[in-house]
Recover the amino acids of this structure.
């Protein structure tokens, strides 16, 4: 369970890298020498945490913790940093980056979904200006989703950043409050892509996965289908505790946490814990589903700060797992 002490530990961990500029991996197409610039010049807000998307969801994490645990030790530091960083001129710089040539695929769709999740979290603090300030960037990514989803003939069923279902879980949650047309589009496209899926036979994980494409699809459809979900889930996972889905129930093994891609598997364990918890009440034997989630949590939680390759992002997935839906 998430308690104040754990929340403060997560927040301390993430504040340690949220504005740490080095090392940093850029997602950028160079159109000429003028495009060469420091990360903090290219991304006035999200230039920490090793890469843009990790910085975005690091912000989601600390803002969520500050809202849930206002009395924890790091809340004042989080809010002071938000007052300094989430300001109009910095947001304008982030928006300007999206106008660069050949930027249409920047952070698609993983970073897009997390940016909308961050804006949605900030909107839960109407006493602060942060959501209104970030809204132009959120609207820019919502527009990108609206343009992209009708062109996506097939969903991306991977366990990495291009996973369609994972991004849309966050985007749909945001859109239902902030953009009804986008919510309708996500629901329609999700039904078209996944509505007829039956009798899943997953081959997971791949060696560098950090989400389960199979379980994320189920969590997305849980949000999309409402009362139609249980019949769909029963057809999609007809034997959730049997041999065909054994690979979804066994925590992944991480062999080298200093290797950023191999360290993804700690994130997979946390993401699976989140999904099994979210799905538990709609599955036969919810207690068994929660036990599977707990096993995945126990495999990953001790390793959040073993190496910077995991430290810069794993606490976000731990928070996702511990706060569920």
């Amino acid at each position: 369970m998430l308690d104040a002490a754990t929340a403060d530990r997560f927040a301390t961990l993430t504040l340690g890298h949220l504005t740490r500029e080095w090392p940093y991996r850029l997602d950028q197409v160079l159109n000429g020498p003028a495009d060469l610039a420091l990360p903090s010049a290219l991304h006035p807000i999200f230039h920490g945490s090793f890469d843009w998307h990790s910085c975005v969801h690091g912000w989601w994490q600390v803002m969520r913790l500050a809202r849930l645990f206002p009395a924890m030790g790091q809340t004042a530091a989080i809010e002071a940093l938000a007052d300094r960083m989430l300001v109009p001129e910095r947001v304008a710089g982030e928006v300007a980056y999206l106008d660069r040539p050949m930027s249409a695929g920047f952070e698609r769709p993983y970073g897009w979904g997390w940016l909308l999740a961050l804006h949605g979290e900030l909107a839960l603090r109407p006493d602060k200006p942060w959501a209104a300030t970030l809204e132009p960037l959120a609207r820019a990514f919502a527009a990108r989703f609206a343009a992209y989803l009708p062109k996506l003939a097939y969903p991306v069923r991977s366990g990495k950043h291009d996973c369609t279902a994972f991004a849309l879980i966050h985007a749909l949650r945001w859109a239902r409050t902030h953009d009804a047309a986008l919510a309708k589009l996500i629901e329609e496209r999700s039904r078209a892509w996944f509505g007829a899926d039956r009798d899943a036979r997953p081959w997971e994980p791949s060696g560098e996965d950090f989400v389960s494409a199979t379980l994320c699809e189920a969590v997305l459809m849980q949000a999309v289908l409402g009362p139609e979900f249980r019949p769909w889930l029963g057809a999609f996972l007809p034997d959730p505790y049997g041999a065909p889905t054994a690979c979804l129930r066994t925590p992944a093994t991480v062999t080298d946490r200093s290797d950023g891609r191999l360290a993804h598997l700690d994130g997979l364990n946390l993401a699976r814990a989140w999904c099994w918890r979210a799905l538990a009440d709609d599955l036969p034997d919810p207690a068994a589903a929660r036990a599977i989630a707990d096993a995945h949590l126990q495999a990953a939680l001790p390793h959040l700060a073993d190496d910077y390759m995991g430290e810069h992002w794993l606490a976000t997935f731990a928070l996702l797992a511990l706060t569920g839906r």
Notes: The chain is about 60% helix and 0% strand.
